[in-house]
Amino acid sequence: SGASKGDIREKVWDYLEASGLAEFPRPVHHRIPNFKGSHQACCSVKELDVFNRASEIKVDPDKPLEGVRLAALQARKTLLVPTPRLRSGLFNKIVPPPGATKEILRVCATSQGIKEYSVPVGLDGKARVDLVVVGSVAVSEKGWRIGKGEGYADMEYAMMVSMGAVTEDTPVITIVHDCQVVDIPEELLGDHDLTVDYILTPTRTIKTNCERPKPQGIIWHKANQPLYEMLGKIPILKSLRYKEKQAGKDVTLRDERPDLANANKSAALNEEAVAGNTGPQASVGSAQIGQQCVESDSLSPRLEGSGTITTVYVGNIPPNIRVSELKCALREFHATPLRVNWQGAQHRAFLDYKDKATAESAVSSLKGLSLGGNTLRVELAKSQRNQG
User: Fold this and answer.
1) N or C, where is the chain less crowded by C-beta within 10 Å?
2) 207-245 burial by CB neighbour count: b if 16+ within 10 A, else e?
3) Are residues 129 and 230 in the same domain?
4) Residues 86 and 122 both lie in one domain
């Protein structure tokens, strides 16, 4: 006993490499390891009732899960794959071309195919996931799982709970080599750790009958360090937090609470609550956003300097959204422009920023943002105007 998650990971990685079981990409350290026999293990998913009954399956992009992605495509199921590190949106839906041959389906299941044959599914995508397949570094017969330590699988699962895409009954499967099935001391598990219901290895199928409840959405108030870093890196997480805030949930992060004030608070998290948002919201929805915002006439006192103004295009704005609501969201995401050229009738707006770097950072902050049920289209505008 006394082993940490890190110790268990290193042991598994070292063993896979030393025993000749490791497969491309190598070394397997710091990854969800691919192993000899992964395809065989993946194939046994077809014997599972939970797979055969599922119509929408979320499978992680890791190499050892390729066989499950292929099986899902061959069975004509809807396949959702998280975007790598969740940089844009939450999932990609893999859409094979009409009449795809076996070979093409094989390509669709690879990381290359995930890039070529996918369409993004936003936060408001009405995803209902019937089955979740995750990679693991180690897993116990009781269903306790250790990932590669970055927290993405736990975070994706929590985000799916928050979006209503999964419920506590949605089964979770992991695919590992037999040597990755190890004892894991229960004290290593946190509330945010995802547990699994089925473990498939090249030689057996283990039903864990795991009693431990799965994470119940994102636990903002006990946000651990990775969550802070992720808020900075994952635009969709900010959207989700914004959405939950609109719904009147407490999304205060631990270090924002005065009683736990933390001296080295990072600037990014030092968001002031939206002015005027005092009482619980009467109803959810974009109509509320404008009313929580104290509107100032112009967003910025004057155009600064004579730099090259860079314009950002925002499209797919729903007809019922007002300019004040867009401005409010821009402030919330720290993407306040010098000015807004609002063209609501054309469902679009143009935002001017002082230079290209500021504009690009605004684009990445706003990626995946949904207003009034539409995921906005956000990109640098095609024609840039020089200013000054």
Assistant:
1) N
2) ebebeeebbebbebeebeebbbebbeebbbbbbbbbbbb
3) no
4) yes
